[in-house]
Specification:
about 200 residues, alpha/beta, 7 helices, 7 strands
């Protein structure tokens, strides 16, 4: 069984530690833990990791966020995978920081990356894992500055725990199915863990 896991973000060092790049961050953490190395290919950087007999192709689109669908659609067809084997990882400012929410399908919810994927795939019927960033109480019109802003220090310290939980959710998606993954991982992560409190 092969799965395409697309983590969304923007290429370029200036975006590396921003909230909008949480999808890239999850895949980078998983690849590093698996000693996998990304290679530059058409429309993105890719690598493969295996877990419990499943192969996960990790994709970081190089098309910038607003054209993510071009990369996702290309690699879904290239790998000859059904949409049921696709999972997209994105940030969500409507969800509290440290909260995971997986869905089988749904609207883009204002996320430009998901909007473009919906357009290119001509459907909203694919799984997505939203990772909450909170909204920081930004003023009206401040959404772009917030999502393209860097994490606060306390958020950075909690990030390893969030990334680990997101990776576990994706593994569960591939090994146990989307319903089981939703039941197990749609929750707010306990950010009061000793290692987080100690670092703060």
């Amino acid at each position: 069984m092969n799965y395409l896991i697309a983590g969304l973000g923007n290429i370029g060092q200036e975006y590396a530690n921003t909230r909008h790049n949480i999808g890239f961050m999850v895949l980078d953490a998983w690849a590093q833990a698996s000693n996998a190395v990304f290679r530059n290919d058409r429309y993105g950087a890719l690598t493969e990791v295996s877990f419990k007999g499943r192969k996960f192709t990790l994709l970081k689109p190089s098309t910038y966020m607003n054209l993510s669908g071009k990369a996702v659609n290309y690699w879904l067809q290239k790998l000859n995978l059904p949409k049921e084997n696709l999972l997209v990882i994105v940030d969500d400012l409507a969800i509290p920081f440290g909260t995971l929410r997986m869905r089988k399908k749904g609207s883009a919810g204002g996320h430009n990356g998901l909007k473009n994927i919906d357009f290119c795939l001509a459907t909203e019927d694919y799984a997505r894992l939203r990772i909450g960033t909170g909204n920081g109480g930004f003023a009206e019109g401040g959404q772009i500055d917030f999502v393209l802003g860097e994490w606060l220090l306390e958020e950075k310290r909690a990030m390893p725990l969030i990334l680990d939980e997101a990776i576990a959710a994706v593994k569960c998606f591939g090994t146990e199915g989307v319903d089981r993954a939703m039941n197990k991982f749609n929750h707010s992560i306990d950010l009061t863990a000793p290692e987080v409190k100690q670092s703060v």
